[in-house]
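Hi F.,

I've been meaning to write this up properly since the lab meeting, where we talked about keeping a consistent format for the predictions we share between groups. The idea is simple: the sequence comes first, exactly as it goes in, then the structure tokens exactly as they come out, then a line or two of notes. No screenshots and no reformatting. I'm using this chain as the first example so we have something concrete to point to.
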Amino acid sequence: LGPGVYRIDVKTAALEQVVGAPEGESDDVFMAPDGSLVWTALIAGELRTLRPNGTIEVLAKNLPMVNPVTVTSEGRLFTGQMAKPDSLIEVDLAGKKPQRIVATDLGGINAFEEDGGKGDKAGLYVPLADKGAIGRVNINTGALKIIAEGLGMPVSVKRDAHGGLVTLDWSTGKVSHVNPETGETKRITTVTPPLDNLAIGPDDTIYVSRPSDSSIIAVNPNTGQQRPLVEGKISAGGGLAVIQRNGKPALVLSDAYGYRFVDLATGSIEMLPFELGLAASSDIAVTEKVFVLVNARRPTLTIVDRATNRTLSTMGGFKALMNVVAPESGGIFVTDYGSGEILSIKPGAQPDRSVVTSGLHGPVGLALDKAGNLIVGEATTGTISRINTKTGTKEIIAADLAQPEGLTVLPDGRIAVAEVGAKQLTLLDTTTNTRAVIADHLYIGAHFTRAPGPVYLPTGVASDAQGAIYITCDMDNSVLKFTPQK
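Output, unedited:
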């Protein structure tokens, strides 16, 4: 979910960015025989390449959910769309010939690899997540043959040095060996899910990517022993809140792959067991009994029981929910970036929603002041406003900010806001009409080409009773703390 392509030394784990933002936004990546680096920009719906001479080109566009990519030993380039039309497409690596649809409706194709055949017999081994199977597709005719089944939700398949296949199960984390001739499968190990892709080194070491915490795990194919190569904690952090957990102050952090808890003393993170489609969020609010999650990418509002971490209810029908507040007095307020509204939500057996105010321009950040008014930031106009929750009256209290996103009201009434356009954290004093920059050159504001609007995921800002400020940084997956100086 980050806009970068990286090279990782498998011995030292040293990281080097090869392609930066926004062009580097990628899902799958492959090095062609001629030295061209090719990758799929899933959000933008493009297939891109970095030529050996350093130029970047778009080889194909208008491909929603474009995901897998590979180049055969004969130099033929293939990509695919993991959702409808679920297509396998051949694209000219030189960028001169029109693309060719090889097959459609295959069954949820994802990261694939050539089968070693040549000429008329050339094909790809493909994972078919919707069918729980591995197949072989003839790249000339599009004919599909199932070679192994009962694999859960396979999302990647690669060949090892002996002609065998290794595949991953997204939902269970099972890493399996598949005999392509007999279809026999054998579990190698289980890595904490979800799993997304794999690569096999020249010594047959299996490198597995885990998107939920931005980590890469090295697996011994013979023993199943696991070794962390790149260790992460966050995938795509958004809003956050300060809570008490196990008798200690902690953060609860929203994330596109499920909310998680941060120990403020050690920085350690505890994730919940992964459940596909549940607990993913762009912001989180906390009451004494529940967590309230909003999801910008899949516009939903979910209420979770704090004691059990069980989902109590989920609501849809929104456009792009960015931030949420949930006062202990009851009710829920959300910013809908897509509709330009602040909505009031009353959950229950018959949930009710109403518009508090409309006509906002890119509303993102949302907080409550001591008087019970809503403080909202409009990212596209650069304003901070105070909203009366009963009348919907809007009063602009700060202007000319650079893409304000997350914000919080400190105990003394000042407002801390992430100015993503200036990559800084700013403190606003609305009583004196003054502002001060707390920190600049922050790693915030990840940008994606062709993403829906300037705000893809919101930068989160929260504060505690002592006036400390916490901010999520989406460009390096960090959480920063700023402590007031006496």
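Notes:
The mean pLDDT is 93.
The radius of gyration is 24 Å.

If this format works for you, I'll send the rest the same way.

G.
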